[in-house]
From TrEMBL:
Annotated LUD domain residues: 72-286
Positions of the UniProt region annotated as Disordered: 449-478
Claim: 4Fe-4S is one of the keywords in the record: yes
Pfam families xrefs: Fer4_8, LUD_dom, LutB_C
UniProt-recorded name of the protein: L-lactate dehydrogenase complex protein LldF
Coiled-coil segments on the chain, per record: none
Entry's transmembrane regions: none
Biased segments, Basic and acidic residues type: 468-478
Source organism per UniProt: Nocardiopsis metallicus
Keyword Glycoprotein on entry: no
Length: 478
């Protein structure tokens, strides 16, 4: 059974353990700094055009989400007209049941997979395994994670937390269990590791009759699905098997083919720091004699319509999963992705996962707090998702729920003081009188704040008192 995010500890606990792992921190620091540098260079080349592209990406996504009912029906019609079959899945269980049934109907017991966040979200591999079907991940980083019985820690580079020596060790130990073994003299040279993966995967590509993918975009007017990848493994999965099943979140729609012009510039620059994506595969239904002859599209809701109903939180559905917000985030860089306890890590995970899953568990409730609110994620987001705004919005929902009694009492007190000029004056006078005699460290829960910073000195008089005295002095001088 593949590893699962279910039941992982809340962020503060997991982060404390993660920051103590200096090797992972080193790997993350190096990798995120490299990707950030590449992204900055290619975005910088576009000058002011970048902000225009960003606004257009935001506009297209916002418009599509506002008219999602229309575009979903249009997509369904287009896919069916092109020879594909469309299935609707309200939640993870329904999506897993549909995919399992479709694979069973082919008579096959194995599938090859294109890297897909949607299938990770629904834990498809576990559902297939429980039904006697083996799913083989073919993206290099996903392969490493699967062989190592590990969890992905980054949207784009799921094995970002591992160094090449660790990858070599995983290949030597596990490849033989899943197919072609790693060569005995395998070194940790990146080329040698890539070659071992290539030989291991090629046998699977040539054997598999069924492939499962996600999609980066689904074009409503033509029924075309689009996958962007860097290794060519996706192209193999999307062309060689007889049956292709694509599990796609309903927010992945764009209205027209021409809209891809915007996203084909935004996504590669924001994700891998490239001007152009190396392998972009598009397919429209079924083409006789060319590629898979059975195509199924599973449209996944799994909480998305609930997110859509939230006027602040819905902007998270604009996400094109580029990972730029992860790479820039000072919190992610120090804790890594596992600490979030969520398929979607980093800043986007902190706003998307609690909305998709609801905030009933302590792990989900902790996610909106997994941020310093520095705003760097908003600055780099190619579709201008105001992540800090959504984080604060979700924190408000958490704070309004059960618990947080101390915080609620403090806020009620602050409301009473700041709502009355007389009460504020009285509190300021009292604080001024105590002045420098206040303790440097606060007691109880408030002590967490003063553990890492000094309580500032309270001035002997408030601004208002100073102003009134100044007026008085000036009046006397006249
Ligand atoms: S929130 Fe924005 S920056 Fe983060 S992954 Fe999504 S599109 Fe990229």
């Amino acid at each position: 059974m593949s590893a699962t995010f279910l039941g992982l500890p809340p962020f503060p606990e997991a982060a404390r353990a993660a920051v103590g792992d200096s090797r992972t921190r080193q790997n993350l620091h190096k990798a995120t700094r490299t990707i950030r540098g590449k992204r900055d260079a290619v975005v910088g080349e576009l000058g002011e055009d970048w902000q225009r592209l960003r606004s257009e990406g935001e506009r297209v996504k916002t418009h599509t989400l506002r008219h999602l009912d229309h575009y979903l029906e249009q997509l369904e019609e287009s896919v069916q007209r092109a020879g594909g079959t469309v299935h609707w899945a309200a939640d993870a269980a329904e999506a897993n049941a549909i995919v399992t049934r479709l694979v069973h109907e082919t008579g096959e017991r194995e599938v090859v997979k294109v890297k897909s966040m949607a299938t990770q979200e629904i834990e498809l591999n576990n559902a297939l395994e429980a039904a006697g079907i083996t799913a083989y991940e073919t993206d290099l980083a996903e392969l490493i994670v699967q062989l190592g019985e590990d969890l992905p820690s980054h949207i784009l580079v799921p094995a970002i937390h591992l160094g090449r020596a660790q990858i070599r060790e995983v290949f030597l130990r596990q490849m033989a269990e899943w197919g072609v073994p790693a060569p005995p003299g395998l070194t940790d040279d990146p080329r040698a590791l890539a070659e071992a993966a290539r030989v291991h995967l090629r046998e699977l590509f040539l054997r598999a009759k069924v492939a499962v993918s996600g999609a980066n975009f689904a074009v409503a007017d033509s029924g075309t699905l689009v996958v962007l990848e860097s290794e060519g493994n996706g192209r193999m999965c999307l062309t060689l098997p007889e049956t292709l099943i694509s599990v796609v979140g309903i927010e992945k729609i764009v209205p027209a083919w021409s809209d891809l012009e915007v996203f084909m510039q935004l996504l590669p620059r924001s994700s891998t720091g490239e001007r152009m994506n190396p392998y972009t595969s598009t397919w429209t239904g079924v083409t006789p004699g060319d590629g898979p002859q059975n195509f199924h599209l599973v449209l996944l809701d799994n909480g998305r319509t609930d997110v859509l109903a939230d006027t602040v939180g819905r902007q998270a559905l604009r996400c094109i999963r580029c990972s730029a917000c992860l790479n820039i985030c000072p919190v992610y860089e120090r804790t890594g992705g596992h600490a979030y306890g969520s398929v979607y890590p980093g800043p986007i995970g902190a706003i998307l996962t609690p909305q998709l899953q609801g905030m009933s568990s302590e792990t989900d409730k902790a996610l909106p707090y997994a941020s310093s609110l520095c705003g760097a994620c908003y600055d780099v987001c190619p579709v201008a998702i105001d992540i800090p705004e959504v984080l604060v919005h979700l924190r408000e929902q958490v704070a309004r729920g059960p618990g947080h009694t101390g915080e609620k009492a403090v806020m009620a007190g602050a409301d009473a003081v700041f709502g009355s000029a007389r009460a504020l004056d009285a509190v300021q006078r009292a604080a001024g009188a105590v002045g420098g005699n206040l303790p440097r460290h606060l007691p109880g829960m408030a002590g967490k704040w003063t553990d890492t910073r000094d309580l500032p000195d309270v001035p002997g008089q408030s601004f208002r008192q100073w102003w009134n005295k100044r007026d008085q002095r000036e009046g006397e001088g006249r």
